[in-house]
Design brief:
The chain is mainly beta. It is 0% helix and 47% strand. It is globular and about 40 Å long.
């Protein structure tokens, strides 16, 4: 069982930066792939970034095409925390951002993410 709590959301102007954190409980955090999803009003939830757990070769990452080069995911297993650094933010990045955990090989297997945080709102203004 993994419990996740996101923080760091807020309001930022277009072109600005924001960093999200997700703190996890549980002694086995390092084995889980960690992903950041987002859901905008009226849209489906999408996986935007993910990083593999140590058991699955922790260097592997995934980024969706819409955020590649602007979002950066990292993890600190000693702190049971995963981060999402976002730069050059656009209005279309406005969404509720969720972190999630999965115990599977593929980091981009959205359906495999089984533990979820409550979400944090990111709003990008013009």
């Amino acid at each position: 069982q993994v419990q996740l709590v996101e923080s760091g959301g807020g309001l930022v102007q277009a072109g600005g930066s924001l960093s999200l954190s997700c703190a996890a409980s549980g002694r086995t955090f390092s084995r889980y792939n960690m992903g950041w999803f987002r859901q905008a009003p009226g849209k489906e939830r999408e996986l935007v970034a993910a990083i593999a757990g140590q058991i699955w070769s922790g260097d592997r990452t995934y980024y969706s095409g819409s955020v590649k080069g602007r979002f950066f995911i990292s993890r600190d297993d000693s702190k049971n925390t995963v981060y999402l650094q976002m730069i050059s933010l656009k209005q279309e990045d406005t969404a509720v951002y969720y972190c999630a955990a999965a115990d599977t090989f593929r980091v981009d297997a959205s359906e495999a993410y089984e533990y979820w945080g409550q979400g944090t709102q990111v709003t990008v203004s013009s």
